[in-house]
């Protein structure tokens, strides 16, 4: 038996619009996309009482550090540290194609 699920999508241009959209009592789940505006406003969003009721899933660990429940994505600080190892190898004489490609891993 198949269950039908209806989804509403909202185009959000500011943190205020996001918080207003969450005031709809029918909102039960939210996925916050990876976006500069959401990243910049992560503390304000995480501390909103309405957000605490529906607990969004975020794309970056930094949202969790700001008070969000869960993230599914890479750790930005870890990626920057890993990129620095490539820069060091290149500065020591390796050609950019020499270092092996590494994928993000959970630590």
Structure description:
The protein is mainly alpha-helical. The protein is built from six helices and two strands; from the N terminus they run ααααβαβα. The chain has helices at residues 15-22, 36-40, 42-46, 49-54, 61-65, 76-91, and strands at residues 57-58, 70-71. α5 (61-65) links the parallel β1 and β2 (70-71). The longest helix is centred in the C-terminal third of the chain and has 16 residues, at 76-91. The chain is elongated. The N and C termini lie far apart (40 Å). The mean pLDDT is 79.
Outline of the structure:
The chain has helices spanning 15-22, 36-40, 42-46, 49-54, 61-65, 76-91; strands spanning 57-58, 70-71. With 107 residues, the chain is mainly alpha-helical. A two-stranded parallel sheet has the order 1-2.
Using only CA atoms, what is the Rg?
19 Å
Q: What percentage of amino acids are in beta strands?
A: under 5%
Structural class call reads mainly alpha
Mean pLDDT: 79
Q: State the distance separating the first and last CA atoms.
A: 40 Å
Tell me how many strands there are: 2
What attributes characterize this protein structure?
107 residues, mainly alpha, two-stranded parallel sheet, 6 helices, 4% strand, elongated
């Amino acid at each position: 038996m198949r269950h039908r699920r209806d989804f509403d999508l909202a185009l959000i241009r500011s943190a205020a619009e996001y918080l207003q959209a969450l005031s709809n009592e029918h909102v039960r789940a939210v996925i916050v996309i990876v976006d500069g505006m959401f990243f910049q406003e992560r503390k304000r969003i995480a501390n909103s009482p309405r957000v605490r009721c529906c607990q969004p899933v975020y794309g970056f660990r930094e949202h969790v550090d700001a008070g969000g429940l869960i993230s599914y994505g890479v750790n930005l600080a870890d990626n920057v540290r890993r990129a620095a190892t490539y820069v060091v190898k290149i500065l020591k004489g390796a050609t950019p194609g020499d270092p092996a490609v590494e994928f993000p891993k959970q630590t």
